[in-house]
Amino acid sequence: VLLARQVLPWLKVTCRGAGWDTFREINSFSMLTLVAAVAAKLYWDTDNVLINRTLDPTMVAGYSIVSLILLRCSMIVSLASNAVAAPLAVLYGQGQFKRIACAIYRANRIAVPAGAFCIIFVMLFGEEFIVCYAGSDYREYASLFPLVGVGFLVSATQNLPSRVPGVFGKVGLPAAMSLIFALLNVVLSLIFVCWFEWGLMGVAGGTV
Asked: Cβ distance 116 to 70 under 8 Å?
């Protein structure tokens, strides 16, 4: 009952009222949360494991720095996505579906160009960024910025629209798609590195 009150705060769950339907809903919600967490771990952590096991472990630091710099640039879009999450839920509760579409469009029109500008700037001047951030020993990893940056640019355009299924209570779809693309990331990276022998570019290409 305590777990149900945490997972389903909008329901007044009592010991007498708790039944199998409540139990199934709790477990379904928890499983979707687990799937989303696993997908995130696969997407972000398997690249480092793959580099460590199939390439040179010392490359992990350089690859992580490139990803971190681009991630920081894309956080402008992520912040906008988090900012509109609550208003979208309110609009859904009020049944104002047209305003949901309008809010997504307007937020995207502001956040995506701002985030894209930062990402493209780093893609163009990646060498200067990484030398300033980590030193000249990491200069060779600057070639990764254009390839990895493309992935972040595509992701930036989908960040806000991806909020829509959650607003309508369809949390299963985003969780399932995240897991599918995370697994695809692992498979493609393995193919590019082990089969085509593209090295670090193969890891980045699989992620993109």
From this structure: no
Dihedral-angle region of residue 96 (phi above 0 means left; psi in -120 to 50 means alpha; beta otherwise): beta
Number of other CB atoms surrounding residue 118 within 10 Å = 20
The angle at the Cα of 156, spanning 152 to 158, to the nearest 5 degrees, equals: 120
Q: For 144-170, write each residue's pLDDT tens digit.
A: 999 999 989 988 888 888 877 777 767
User: With pLDDT > 90 as the criterion, what percentage of the chain qualifies?
Assistant: 30
Between CA 181 and CA 166, with CA 108 as vertex, the angle to 5 degrees is 50
pLDDT at 188: 92
Helix residue spans in the chain (DSSP H): 2-7, 20-54, 59-93, 97-124, 126-134, 144-159, 163-167, 172-190, 200-207
Q: Model's pTM, two decimal places?
A: 0.79
Say which residue, 139 or 37, is predicted with more confidence.
Answer: 139
As a whole number of angstroms, the distance between CA 69 and CA 133 comes to 9
Integer Cα distance of 13 and 112 in angstroms? 41
**Alpha carbons 85 and 66: distance in angstroms, whole number:** 29
Examine the pLDDT at 135 and tell me if it is beyond 70. yes
Distance CA 110, CA 120 (A): 16
